[in-house]
UniProtKB/TrEMBL annotation, chain A:
InterPro entries: Cullin, Cullin-like_AB, Cullin_homology, Cullin_homology_sf, Cullin_N, Cullin_neddylation_domain, Cullin_repeat-like_dom_sf, WH-like_DNA-bd_sf. PANTHER family: CULLIN. Coiled coil: none annotated. GO terms for biological process: ubiquitin-dependent protein catabolic process. One of its GO terms (molecular function) is ubiquitin protein ligase binding. Gene3D superfamilies: Cullin Repeats, Cullin, Chain C, Domain 2, Winged helix-like DNA-binding domain superfamily/Winged helix DNA-binding domain. Residues 374-602 form the Cullin family profile domain. This is Cullin family profile domain-containing protein. Keywords: Isopeptide bond, Ubl conjugation, Ubl conjugation pathway. Belongs to the cullin family.
TrEMBL record, chain B:
It holds the Pfam family BTB_2. PROSITE patterns: BTB. SMART domains: BTB (SM00225). PANTHER family: OSJNBA0029H02.24 PROTEIN, POTASSIUM CHANNEL TETRAMERIZATION DOMAIN-CONTAINING. Pathway: Protein modification; protein ubiquitination. It comes from Carnegiea gigantea. This is BTB domain-containing protein. InterPro entries: Beta_prop_At2g24240, BTB/POZ_dom, SKP1/BTB/POZ_sf, T1-type_BTB. GO terms for biological process: protein homooligomerization. Residues 6-76 form the BTB domain.
Length: 733, 469
């Protein structure tokens, strides 16, 4: 209502379409049709774009869009049919060239037609949901040319044959091939896939299947891999030159499947040239090739890894159980290190530093190193050897390298506490005998152990170093205070060792010669005077002495001997001949020690400062010993070693083992209590699992032992069994 | 300019123009000029004759100027329509459109035109098209306007009352209408926006039988090409139908659960981020409001729901929800009541949510409100575009911006009575007035320079500063 008030209606004139000429549409279309003919006949130079555009515009404007569009379809189809005929007529090699030429022509014509019909494309086509002119041209080309029965298969076969010829080494016209393939891609990805890619992949699969069968019959593994790699690269190159880049994955998959995946196991286990041989011969290049090819297929790398792992385990097992190698600890560890170096290098050079391969290598080493229960001892002995003499004249960096390698082996050990035990022993010997070459190297290793296993592991080892230093100061202090009284007495060097830090054997005191025992008493009173509340006991079994001796013809020598040996020799200041019994009574040295010490004094050639009667190797109760007046040596200083087994003897080993087991008990108990304290209630299996986890860094506790410890803790009322569930333990606060 | 080959001379309808190929290159390859200078057409550039074009020289001059400067200056004597037609001929309509209005910003809008319609009675809905056009539903007719505001042949579906319209793309419009009593015809059709031709009728199948139905609100999922519509079937088959845009076939049907409302929905909104459809049935179509989010992926479920049905008896000043819109950016739902109070709900919590009402918008409206209340009521409508919230009330549209939805602008046009619907799209805001059958077109100016040159001829643009409460 209100609209009528405010506005007056204007009556607009009826808009009728002005149709100029009933034949207008036909005439205009004739012009355009003629233009399309001319364009296809390469005769477009006389055409006026403006006029054609305007004509097409007018046709659409006057609602003749449908006529224009269908006319275009008919005209273009007719042209394409002719084109198709001329392509079919092309003979042999000129087929592709003709196809390419006509495609280029059609493309150009299509562009021009699209330009003319631009207005139709913009308005008529979208509103009627028709195919735009350019796509229409491609579709018509596809249907009338590419899919014409006389062209479709011929085109495919020609392309496949070209590729086959190129694979067999011929040179083909890549530019032309690229153009044709590009045409298929332009026609839509489905055309490319259906009319070329699918059959291409099938034919390729066949080709590579046959070829790989031939190769594998006549080549060794290395050669085969080289050939497969070359084929793979060729296919990748082919894609980059004239195929759709999406085909790369597909064709490489075919090569991978036919040439690698299908022959994987056969290649790896190939006799005399397979993976194991490559590993044995350090064939980095072949191994690298195998790695890079196998990584492309499913399970490829795991196949290599499994074979490598079992090979390393086998070889390692052989190594650690080889009776010849096991004889020499240094050799044993050196062989392990060499083996590790070898595989490290293979993984670096050929396996791309693959983490999974490194892990496999480490777990293999862990597996076989622990097969030999003496590995911890041997590794410690190896370090001992290196630190005693092996590192002389070696630069600091190289020392570090060696130590790092040792640490790596150490990481593989399950019984780290056993290593610790041995290491302590060996370190004590080195320190007390002053044999250690480099203090820095010693300390560096301890730092490494500390970072690896924590403060607890090394605190005692560090204590040993501290003791050495304090002792030096103490002795200096002693001589500073008492020096004037002791001008004539022998020089005494005392190392005060803290009990607990050092691997002490039960002290077996012996009778020291009188002049020494007086000196020792003085030191004792000095020491206790400065450190009240301490107890000193003499570890005579660990000392050394330098004594001067005059032999026949006035020959003077300085003899470097052990404390026990010194005690024995001093007896000969007052006697020329003593029986074993007399010596034993005078010195009170324990029999096995005494025997060993007498052996080294009397039975070692060139160092026999004593003579034994009778002259036999073994010491008997009734043997007599005489001062060897005829002793000669080229050197002024003579070191008389004790006959000592470097490796542990069987009973010693048992003893060490037992000590280790003893030491483990409180550790296991501590772990159990820690766990139970936090969990309050826990069942047996979980306790075992957690204890094992906690102690893993030091050793692998035996479940039976854990059970025993639990029993013991229950007895001591730290824990109790749950009354309902016997498998459950409760913590008693 | 030193290179004479760069110079180009045209003879347009007898008038000589001189320009450079650089200027013409601005037209782009898909224009008349792009094709004209393509190498395929060996244009005789050496000849002294100018290139003849049989078109209007005045328009050519304006368009050439557009290519030179990127600005559109239409002399007063030149009808816009003529210019648009010429632009179409040369393939420059996109250039003209870009020069006409800039990127949409609710705070920069100016009223550029008001178009009066012919249909009697109140308008039902106005929908902005993707290209700057719009369609207006009045009674049983839908008028379609292109971006030049030229009207196309109107759409009708058996001359039944139209309930909603929507654009599929720039050439296709979907119309939902009431079912035709006594006939098995359905209530939804797809039309060609240019010539008004009915292209497809949508059917609803229940137990493989075609049923006639009344289609209500429409929603579109442009990514998966789906159309949603609220449907009321003959035999109480109420719910939401889903069709494929390409094939027109029915894909799915979400039946209305007991005690809920879907088939009468006032608003459908597809939420692409959460893959859900917002369905809102509002007062006064029903006594209560039902707002829900539907997930059509199997198993079909209602993933979020809110209703005021449980509130019970009407309270005096109860705030009834009159429109609802989901804002995925903030995972929230905005609702409005008849006093234009905005309320918000959280879409993330699926449980019982309550509306947080914010009444800061009331203060400004208070005075006006009483006067307008006498007129025929126009319920508030909501719109959301690019982080800005729009709400229509009476004769004005408020623009709210920022995370706190501060009122930043108010669009008002004094002529035409209250606004019954508005729609944003194609860079424009269309507001439909209920009384005078007029719709307004609001645009952001193309750039700062153009803003200075042209002032809105009609209507007032109030810029309201942020107010603290």
């Amino acid at each position: 209502m209100s609209s009528q008030k405010k506005k007056t209606f204007q009556i607009e004139a009826f808009k009728h379409r002005v149709v100029v000429d009933p034949k207008y549409a036909d005439k205009t279309w004739k012009i355009l049709e003629h233009a399309i003919h001319e364009i296809y006949n390469h005769n477009a130079s006389g055409l006026s774009f403006e006029e054609l555009y305007r004509n097409a515009y007018n046709m659409v404007l006057h609602k003749y869009g449908e006529k224009l569009y269908s006319g275009l379809v008919t005209t273009m189809t007719a042209h394409l049919k002719e084109i198709s005929k001329s392509i079919e007529a092309a003979q042999g090699g000129s087929f592709l060239e003709e196809l390419n030429r006509k495609w280029t022509d059609h493309n150009k014509a299509l562009q021009m037609i699209r330009d003319i019909l631009m207005y139709m494309d913009r308005t008529f086509v979208p509103s009627t949901h028709k195919t735009p002119v350019y796509e229409l041209g491609l579709n018509l080309w596809r249907d009338n040319v590419i899919h014409s029965s006389n062209i479709q298969t011929r085109l495919l076969n020609t392309l496949l044959e070209l590729i086959l010829r190129e694979r067999t080494g011929e040179v083909i016209n890549r530019g032309l091939t690229r153009n044709i393939i590009k045409m298929l891609m332009d026609l839509g990805s489905s055309v490319y896939q259906e009319d070329f890619e699918k059959p291409f992949l099938e034919v390729s699969a066949n080709f590579f299947r046959v070829e790989s069968q031939q190769f594998i019959e006549c080549c060794d593994c290395g050669d085969y891999l080289k050939k497969a790699e070359r084929r793979l690269n060729e296919e990748i190159e082919r894609v980059s030159h004239y195929l759709d880049s999406n085909s790369e994955v597909k064709i490489t998959n075919v090569v991978e499947r036919e040439m690698i995946a299908n022959h994987m196991l056969r290649l790896v286990h190939m006799e005399n040239s397979g993976l194991v041989n490559m590993l044995l011969d350090d064939k980095y290049e072949d191994l690298g090739r195998m790695y890079s090819l196998f990584r492309r297929v499913i399970n490829g790398l795991s196949t290599i890894r499994d074979v490598m792992t079992s090979h390393i385990r086998e070889a390692g097992k052989e190594l650690v159980t080889d009776p010849e190698i096991v004889k020499d600890p240094v050799e044993f560890v050196q062989r392990l290190l060499d083996e590790k170096d070898k595989y490290d290098k293979i993984i670096t050079l050929a396996f791309n530093n693959d983490k999974t391969f490194q892990n496999a290598l480490n777990s293999s080493f862990e597996y076989f190193i622990n097969l030999n229960p003496r590995s911890p001892e041997y590794i410690s002995l190896f370090v001992d050897d290196k630190l005693r003499k092996g590192l002389k004249g070696v630069s600091e960096e190289d020392v570090e390298v060696v130590l790092d390698k040792v640490m790596m082996l150490f990481r593989f050990l399950q019984e780290k506490d056993v290593f610790e035990k041995y290491y302590k022993q060996h370190l004590a010997k080195r320190l007390l005998s002053g044999k250690t070459v480099s203090d820095d190297a010693e300390r560096s290793l301890i730092v490494k152990l500390k970072t690896e296993c924590g403060y607890q592991f090394t605190s005692k080892l560090e204590g040993m170093f501290t003791d050495m230093k304090t002792s030096q100061d103490t002795v200096q202090g002693f001589y500073a205070g008492h020096g004037h009284e002791l001008m004539d007495a022998p020089t005494l060097v005392v190392q005060v060792l803290t009990t607990g830090s050092w691997p002490t054997q039960p002290s077996m005191p012996c009778n020291l010669p009188a002049e020494l025992s007086a000196l020792c008493e003085k030191f004792r009173s000095y020491y206790l005077g400065t450190h009240t509340g301490r107890r000193l006991s003499w570890q005579t079994n660990m000392g050394t002495a330098d004594i001067k001796a005059t032999f026949g013809k006035g020959q003077k020598h300085e003899l470097n001997v052990s404390t026990y040996q010194m005690c024995v020799l001093m007896l000969f200041n007052n006697a020329d001949r003593l029986t074993y019994k007399e010596i034993e009574q005078a010195t009170e040295i324990p029999a096995p020690e005494l025997k060993r010490c007498l052996q080294s004094l009397a039975c070692v050639k060139g160092k026999n400062v004593l003579r034994k009667e009778p002259m036999s190797k073994d010491i008997a109760e009734n043997d007599a010993f005489l001062f060897n007046d005829k002793f000669t040596s080229k050197f002024y200083k003579v070191k008389i070693g004790t006959v000592v087994a470097q490796k542990e003897s069987e009973p010693e080993k048992q003893e060490t083992r037992q000590r280790v087991e003893e030491d483990r008990k409180p550790q296991i108990e501590a772990a159990i209590v820690r766990i139970m304290k936090s969990r309050r209630v826990l069942d047996h299996n979980n306790v075992v699992a957690e204890v094992t986890k906690q102690l893993q860094s030091r050793f692998l506790p035996n479940p039976v032992e854990i059970k025993k410890r639990i029993e013991s803790l229950i007895e001591r009322e730290f824990l109790e069994r749950d009354s309902a569930d016997r498998k459950l333990y409760r913590y008693l606060a | 300019m030193n290179n004479p080959r760069d110079l180009i001379r045209f003879n347009v309808g007898g008038k000589i123009f001189q320009t450079t190929s650089t200027t013409l290159a601005n037209a782009g390859r898909s224009s008349f000029f792009g094709a004209l200078f393509d190498d395929n057409w060996n244009l005789n550039s050496n000849s002294d004759d100018p290139i003849f074009i049989d078109r209007n020289p005045d328009c050519f001059g304006v368009l050439l100027d557009l290519l030179r400067t990127g600005e559109l200056c239409i002399p007063p004597h030149l009808p816009e329509k003529l210019l648009f037609r010429e632009a179409y001929f040369y393939g420059l309509s996109d250039h003209v459109r870009c020069a006409r209005w800039g990127p949409f910003d609710g705070n920069r809008l100016r009223l550029t035109s008001s178009v009066s319609g012919r249909a009697p009675g109140d308008g039902t809905a106005i929908r902005a098209g993707p290209d700057g056009g719009c369609c207006v539903a009045h009674g049983c007719i839908v008028h379609v306007y292109d971006w030049t505001l030229e009207d196309h042949p109107p759409l009708q579906l058996d001359y039944q009352i139209v309930n909603d319209v929507g654009w599929l793309d720039s050439h296709n419009v979907v119309v939902s209408a009431c079912e035709r009593l006594g006939r098995g015809d359905c209530g939804m059709g797809l039309f060609n926006a240019v010539d008004g031709e009915l292209r497809h009728r949508f059917h609803v199948l229940h137990d493989s039988q075609v049923k006639s139905f009344t289609a209500g609100a429409l929603g579109f999922d442009s990514n998966q090409h789906k159309i949603f519509a609220s449907c009321k079937g003959r035999s109480n088959e109420y719910g939401i139908g889903v069709w494929d845009q390409m094939t027109g076939h029915q894909l799915d049907f979400f039946y209305e659960p007991l005690g809920w409302s879907l088939g009468d929905a006032d608003r459908l909104q597809w939420l692409p981020g959460s893959n859900c459809l917002l369905v809102a049935t509002l007062f006064p179509r029903k006594d209560h409001c039902y707002i829900s989010l539907l997930d059509f992926r199997a198993p079909k479920s209602m993933v979020w729901a809110w209703s005021d049905a449980h509130v019970g008896g009407m309270m005096e000043d109860q705030k009834r929800v009159r429109d609802a819109i989901a804002m995925e950016e903030t995972s929230s739902m905005c609702v409005v009541n008849e006093f234009e109070d905005l309320g918000f709900m959280d879409l993330r919590s699926s449980g019982a949510t309550s509306i947080r009402w914010s009444s800061r918008s009331r203060l400004i409206m208070k005075g006006k409100h009483d006067k307008m209340a006498e007129d025929e009521p126009c319920y508030p409508k909501l719109g959301f575009h690019n982080g800005q919230l729009f709400s229509s009330m009476n004769d004005s549209i408020s623009v709210f911006s920022g995370p706190e939805w501060v009122l930043t602008s108010r669009l008002r046009c004094a002529y035409g009575g209250p606004i019954c619907d508005f729609s944003i799209g194609g860079g424009r805001l269309f507001a439909l007035h209920s009384e005078e059958n007029v719709f307004d077109v609001w645009e952001a100016p193309p750039c700062a320079l153009a803003l200075k040159a042209t002032q809105p001829e009609r209507g007032i643009c109030l810029i309201v500063g942020a107010e603290k409460q």
